[in-house]
Amino acid sequence: YKNTVNLPSTNFNQRANAVKTEPEIQKFWADSKTYERLSAENPEEVYSLHDGPPYANGDIHMGHALNKVLKDFLNRYQLLRGKKASLIPGWDCHGLPIELKVLQSLKSKERKDLTPSALRKKAKEFALKAVESQKASFQRLGVWASWDKPYLTLNPEYEAAQIEVFGRMFLEGYIYRGKKPVHWSPSSRTALAEAELEYPDEHISRSVYAAFSIKDANKSENELVKKHSDALSVAVWTTTPWTLPANRAVAVNPAIVYALAELEDRVLVVAKDLVETVGQKLEKDLVVIGEVKGNDLVGLHYEHPIQDGLECKILIGGDYITTESGTGLVHTAPGHGQEDYIVGMQEGLEIFSPVDNAGRFTDEFSEGKFAGLSVLDDGNQAIIDHVSKRGVLLLEEKYNHKYPYDWRTKKPTIFRATEQWFASVEGFRDQALEAVRGVQWTPEAGEKRIFNMIVGRNDWCISRQRTWGVPIPVLYDVDGEPVLNQQTISHVAELFRQKGSDIWWELEADDLLPEEYRGKGLRKGMDTMDVWFDSGSSWNAVTRQSPEMTFPADVYLEGSDQHRGWFQSSLLISVATQGQAPYKKVLTHGFVLDQNGLKMSKSVGNVVDPLKLVNGGNNQKTEPAYGADVVRLWVSSVDYSGDVLVGPEIMRTVSDSYRKIRNTLRYIVSNVNDYDPSTGMSFEQLPALDKYMLRRLAAIAVDMETAYETSSFVRLYQSLMRFATVDLSNFYLDIAKDRLYISGTNEYRRRSCQKVLYHLLEVLTRAIAPILPHT
Fold first, then answer.
1. b/e map 534-547, b = 16+ CB within 10 Å
2. pLDDT by residue (tens digit) across 611-653?
3. How do residues 517-538 score in pLDDT, each as one tens digit?
4. 102 φ, ψ to 5°?
5. Which residues pair with 204 in a beta bridge?
6. Within a 13 Å sphere around the CA of 419, how many CA atoms are in the beta-carbon half?
7. How many CB atoms neighbour CB 129 within 10 A?
8. Model's pTM, two decimal places?
9. Bridge partners (DSSP) listed for residue 291
10. H or E segment at 670?
11. What gap in Å lies between CA 272 and CA 278, rounded to an integer?
């Protein structure tokens, strides 16, 4: 009987067989240069999506997959609209993680004999290998990009563009050299920027309460202070006892009322509102005998808790002194804290920081008694023991709080005053904030987040004491003064453009200078730039230089952590040198967690490998090969504005959804194999059911178009699945079978149904093309 019915017919397989067919389709794209032709020959204007550079270190993870696939959705949609949309992929290739990986791969003797040039060569090889690995992974996900001409922060042209940006900021007065406390990582032996820190909740410090004996209370104009001059001490609290050697003042708040409270043979000065709390911690009764104002204490001197013969003064601090914790008086070490430094500069205090690059005490105090001890370990204990013996210690207790850790080594950092290069945000802060307001932020909360970060941002430490990076192009004269001007900057930039930044280590200082600066005994600076300055300069090296891009870019799309990272560094550098933001719109996505909402960790064993989802694992039953399109469908199915989940159960559900879409398309394709749209009937000639279906299709098409325009891919996914299941499978396609199978081949009721199917196929194919390009 098969010849009496119109059976479906198609070469579109029911099974995707993605492991085999997807690479074949990708090869077809490459051979026919599909992406290149569309991005170059489309009739509409350029659509400029600037790719934030992932770090060239290791294999890609699910966060990478989410990010690159989302970008591919945006670009493929714009290509469908006729725009010239291209993606120039980038990689961040410098920095400490790569340098450490190289050093860890070497034997002890090899590390000892390693020259800077040899280290840089090995680091470059490591980075380029990682780039190729990640590139292949992104291509396997079906991401269209200019893979043959990526931008790498180690490319000579990129480095030259970065030096030019640095030069413009320096000449505008935004970059300076100074000694001030910065986040310092003893484990990495370099300064760190705020974006390179993380703050784990479980950190426990060894905090101490200490009493500093006032030496000249008898000279006070306050009678109460003078009366108790022989026994008077100021009580301070610190979570970093190791900074006590660098103490140069105690700061008070003039708005706080201070109590004089008897404690055995002492009279302690403590904020009135904290007397009870401090007494409870000391497990002693503090008997208040009077009150004074902060100004009554200013100008008095106390005996230094560590160094014999040194007396320091009490002075006015800032609003950071509160009665929320501690004693209401703040131990001030200008070499080890930002607020302390500001007060120290105002009061002319010594910026003392007796700590070396490895986080060990130097011999600059107490005749070297503590030299070589780690401030985060035995040095901290030694200071606590010392102040205890001197009768200064009141109490030691554990204190749980957030504390800055090096995001790479996962070890604690310290605040340490060193000579560094800084970018002063103060000079263009208002302009940067105005630029933030002019950008479209999605989600909208992103605007407030980055706005507040810039409002409270301190000067940016841009120098690093490492080898693998772009050198700060400065030379120093015999007095240690920097030699840096338009002529020297342009000369170095051109050298880098021709030969790369390796020549900074390979040539003598004179060979890096214009002719008139040679022979003057100048020496090279050996600091390298913060990698956030590297990547933050990408708009100058890429969007302003590439004809297929525009400045400012139409959109940046990265993880929400980049509000304090790439979004911010790019904005600050661009505003400082161009007076505008480098982007018109910023989209952010959340982190990828496991299906239980937990952070992925190798130690926990819950890491999901995107390539295993695509190609399958060793055990295909437990780790099946879903193919790139199923992974891409997962990306469309999650609300990326927040954190998203992925895992075996979630992928099975998404795979079922993919089969529903594929089978629906296969059914439609197989039933229009003999349909010629040019001979179709008009809308008015259609039966009511078919008219209804086309109206539903039109409404769905508008909804999906809106989803693309607003980059709400989860809305697109939900509309598509609801339409395919409810409107098509459960309704229209179910009741259409009789018309399609048993009606005459050219019968009106069959052709009208095929007309609807044809339009369904046309609209749905366009709708899923950016999401499921292999299907």
1. bbbbbbbbbbbebe
2. 999 999 888 888 999 999 999 999 999 999 999 999 999 999 9
3. 999 999 999 999 999 999 999 9
4. -65, -45
5. 400
6. 7
7. 11
8. 0.82
9. 259
10. helix 648-670
11. 10
